[in-house]
Amino acid sequence: MSTSSTAYRGTYTALVTPLRNDRVDEKAFAQLLEEQVAAGIDGVIPVGTTGESATLSTEEHIRVIELAVQVVKGRTKVIAGTGSNNTVEAIHYTQEAEKCGADGVLIVAPYYNKPTQAGVFAHYAKLAECTKLPIVTYSIPGRCGIEIAVDTMVNLAAKFSNIVAIKESGGSIERFSQLRQALPDKVSILSGDDSMTLPALAVGATGVVSVASNVIPKEVGDLVRAFLSGKADEAEKIHRKLYPIFRDLFIESNPVPTKVALARKGWMTEEVRLPLVPLQPQSRAKLEGTLKSLGL
């Protein structure tokens, strides 16, 4: 795969993992994937945070990647979530994703352990050496307790040609600006927050890893396509329309609200695994009001 800035450009859906009776619902997952392809999404990301990777077994994790590749059949990119706070486990998932035929991998910063930046660098270095797949690093300090420092990302991208992008979920436009100033143009920067997509694009991001695009793939794709084709005013109009759903899909822990929205289609349950629990009544009422106002 090319390591040009267009390698990761556009809208990539952080897929939910449908569950039914505490098992992966493969039929519903296949339907979700078909909807994504039909909407013209640029890529799908199975078994990331939104895919409840933290509570899937190793076998389930690999099966979901395998299923995504089988259903998509090359019609869009499959970037498998293969991160772990255990470097050996992350290597295993990454190599299995490569065997499955994934187009790339998304690897979250090692959480809970709280390594130094030297440890973060060493973690990604080991992973870059173990695979030929393009790697998207993922900085989300709110979940990991650490961030991938700008200098660390610069050094990783300089040393490893297969580290081609970063998903940035730090909640700061300043970080996007810092990353864009410091990184070569060949390294893509993706917004990890739907509500930050438009401002992130304005300071040099190349796309989004979206949760909302599980529910509204075409609309999120339209926003990104409009901006990247020079139609900033049109992108802003779409952002304003969609902002309420961007906000309310995070009214409680991701992916609980998104699964509620998807369950309205009738082919997926709202089921999540503990320690996640069903959406609380007050949050449900607000989310359903937002969905109705958007005609969903």
Commentary on this structure:
The protein is an alpha/beta fold and 296 residues long. Helices cover 46% and strands 14% of the residues. β2 (19-20) and β3 form a beta hairpin. α3 runs parallel beside α4 (117-130) and α4 runs parallel beside α6 (150-159). The radius of gyration is 18 Å and the shape is globular.
Concise structural overview:
With 296 residues, the chain is an alpha/beta fold. Helix content is 46%, strand content 14%.
Task: Give a topology summary.
Elements: E1 10-14, E2 19-20, E3 23-24, H1 26-38, E4 43-45, H2 58-72, E5 77-81, H3 87-100, E6 104-108, H4 117-130, E7 135-139, H5 141-144, H6 150-159, E8 163-168, H7 173-182, E9 188-191, H8 197-202, E10 207-210, H9 217-228, H10 232-248, H11 256-263, H12 281-293
Parallel strand pairs: 1-4, 1-10, 4-5, 5-6, 6-7, 7-8, 8-9, 9-10
Antiparallel strand pairs: 2-3
Morphology: globular
Order of helices and strands: EEEHEHEHEHEHHEHEHEHHHH
Number of domains: 1
- Proportion of beta-strand residues: 5-15%
Counting helices, strands and paired strands, the structural category is alpha/beta
Kindly state the number of beta strands.
10
CATH classification class: Alpha Beta
| Unreliable sequence segments | 1-6
Please state the average pLDDT score.
96
Biggest β-sheet strands, sense, barrel: 8 strands, parallel, barrel
Task: Provide the CATH architecture.
Answer: Alpha-Beta Barrel
Q: Any idea what the CATH superfamily is called?
A: Aldolase class I
Total helical segments: 12
- What do we call the CATH topology? TIM Barrel
